[in-house]
Amino acid sequence: MGVSLHSSLKFPVFFLSFIICCMFEHALASTTRHYHFQIRHKNVTRLCRTKSMVTVNGQFPGPRILAREGDRLLIKVTNHVQDNITIHCFNQGEWWNADPEAVIRQALQTGGGPNVSDAYTINGLPGPFYNCSNKDTFKLKVKPGKIYLLRLINAALNDELFFSIANHTLTVVEADAVYVKPFVTNTILIAPGQTTNVLLKTKSDYPNATFLMTARPYATGLGTFDNSTVAAVLEYKIPNNTHHSAASLKKLPLFKPVLPARNDTSFATNFTNKLRSLASSQFPANVPQKVDRHLFFTVGLGTSPCQQNQTCQGPNGTKFAASVNNVSFIMPTTALLQSHFSGQSKGVYSPNFPISPLIPFNYTGTPPNNTMVSNGTELMVLPFNTSVELVLQDTSILGVESHPLHLHGFNFFVVGQGFGNFDPNKDPSNFNLVDPVERNTVGVPSGGWVAIRFLADNPGVWFMHCHLEVHTSWGLKMAWLVLDGILPNQKLPPPPADLPKC
Predict the structure, then answer these.
(1) Cα separation, 85 vs 80, whole angstroms
(2) Do 353 and 296 contact (CB within 8 A), yes or no?
(3) CB 95 within 8 A of CB 116
(4) Do 460 and 409 meet the contact criterion of CB atoms below 8 Å apart?
(5) Among the residues of 345-495, which ranges form H helices?
(6) Of 280, 244, 2, 15, nearest to 152 (Cα)?
(7) Do residues 131 and 226 lie in contact, with contact meaning Cβ atoms separated by under 8 Å?
(8) Cβ count near 252 (within 10 Å)
(9) Phi first, then psi: what are they for 337, rounded to 5°?
(10) Exposure of 88 by Cβ count < 10 A (0-12 exposed, 13-18 middle, 19+ buried)?
C-alpha cells in the first residue's frame, strides 16, 4: 500500500543530535537545483560557552537542501578552513564544549575511550534540561487537526537514540528514504546515520497544554556515554478566537514523554522487527532470491599493543581497537578508487579480505584469551551483479554491544536477525524474503547477529563502517571493490581530466 499525503500535511524536518533535515518531495517534472556551500569557522554559543566551529553557510546545523525526486543537484563547495572537509548530509548534532577533533585525537593517542559530549541537540539546540539552555530550545508550532510529516535524522556521533513526543503517537512510514508498511508507536529508535519519517496527527482541538519532545541514548556497551536527555517543545498555535496573556501561556501544563530504559534491548528488538518494506507493485521489494556469495563478518572491539615508552588507557595497558573479521582497517594514503582505476593497487590495498573469521570461536560466549586485532587495508572483491548474503555477528571480546553498520553505494535488505551465535543450519529457514526492510544502515543487535542481502550492481570501491564514530576511528570498517560489468553502463566512467590526484 502507498502513503497518501493530503492538504493538511506539513513538512517539518528535525536533526536529533538529532536533526530534523533535508526535504524531498515527489515531482511532476525534474529540474536542476544549484547550491553553493561556503565552509567557514563561526563562533557559536551553547551551554553559556562560545566556541569556533565549522559551519556551512554560517549555519549550525547546516542549510536545508530542497529537492524533488528526479531532480539534479549541482552543489559547489568552497572550503575556507584549514582542515580537509568531507561533506555529509549533516554534521555532528551533539554539542561539545571542547573541540571534537581534539577529543578523538586524544583518545587515539592514549588508547582509551573518548570524552563524551556535553549535550545532545534537536536542530542544534540543547533544550531546557541542560544548564543555561532554556532560551536554546527548539519549538515546533502546530495546528489542531492536522497531519505533519517529521523527517528525523540521528546525527549523533556515538549514540543510538530513543525519541518520543508526550501524549502523541507517531506513525512510521519511511526508513533510510524507503517507504515501509506504516505502524503506530509511541517511541522510535534511530541509530547514527539512520533516517526515519513519521506522521504526527495533532489533537482535534486546542489542548490548552504544551508537550515535550525528548531523546536520550540507547546504550548497550560497557563504555561511558552521554547519559543525558535533550528536549524540544511541541506547541499548539492559539486559536484566533481565544485570548491568552503571556503569563497564562507560561502556566500551561507541560507534559513529558516516558522513554524506554537506556539499555532496553527488548524494545529495540520489537521496534526493528516491525520495519517491513511495502512490497507492493508500485514499491516492490526486490530481494535477491538466489545468493552467489555467502559471507560471515564478525564485528566488535579488541586491543592493539601500546607503543614503547607510552602509557595507554585501554584494557591491561593496551589501546582500544575495533575490527571486522579481526582486521582493523588502516586508512591508505592513496585513494582506493584511484589506485584501482589506475591499475596501481600494489602497496595500497590487498584484495583478500577474509570471507569469515580466520579462527572461529564462541562469538557471544566466553571471550578468547587473545584480544589483539590484526591490521591491514584489505578489500572484498565482487564481480559485477553478484548477489550477496552477509551475516554480521556481534562479538563479546570486550563486551557485547550494538553496532550500527552503514554501507556506502547500496541499499540492502535486512532478511533476518537474532541473538547469540548465528546458526547457518537453522537460522536461514526463518529469513524474510518477502517484505524485509530496505535500508543503508542497520544495527547489529547487542550479543546477536543480523543478515542482509544486496546486489553488487554499482561498480567502484565502497566503504562499510560502524556509524559509531569512535569505533570507526578504532578501525571497525572495511571496503568492497565491485568490478566493472560488460556493458558500457556497467563500468566506472573515466575521471575528469582536471581531477587532482589524492
Answers:
(1) 10
(2) no
(3) no
(4) yes
(5) 469-473
(6) 15
(7) no
(8) 15
(9) -65, -40
(10) exposed
Name the 3-class secondary structure at 468. coil
Burial class (CB in 10 A: 0-12, 13-18, 19+), 415: buried
* pLDDT for res 1: 31
Cis omega (within 30 of 0) for bond into 332: no
Cell representation of residue 87: 561533506
What would the pLDDT profile of 188-240 be if each residue is shown by its tens digit?
999 999 999 999 999 999 999 999 999 999 999 888 889 999 999 999 998 87
Of 397, 107, 364, 341, give the one whose Cα is nearest residue 224.
107
Given a cut of 60, whether residue 2 has pLDDT beyond it is no
Secondary-structure breakdown of the chain: helix, strand, coil percentages, each rounded to the nearest 5? 10, 40, 50
Q: How far is residue 55's CA from residue 171's CA, in Å, rounded to a whole number? A: 33
Could you give the 3-state DSSP secondary structure of residue 193? coil
User: Are the CB atoms for 495 and 341 separated by under 8 Å?
Assistant: yes
Is residue 490 classed as helix, strand or coil in its secondary structure? helix
Q: What's the CA angle centered on 449, arms 107 and 404, to 5 degrees?
A: 40
Q: Report helix, strand or coil for 340.
A: helix
pTM value is 0.90
Q: Which of 298, 260, 344 is nearest to 476 (CA)?
A: 298
For every residue of 18-31, DSSP letters joined together read EEB--EEE--SS--
Return phi, psi of residue 259, to 5°: -95, 155
pLDDT of residue 120: 95
CA-nearest of 274, 275, 270, 280 to 438 is 275
> Which of the residue ranges 15-19, 23-27, 123-127, 181-185 would you say has the lowest mean pLDDT?
23-27
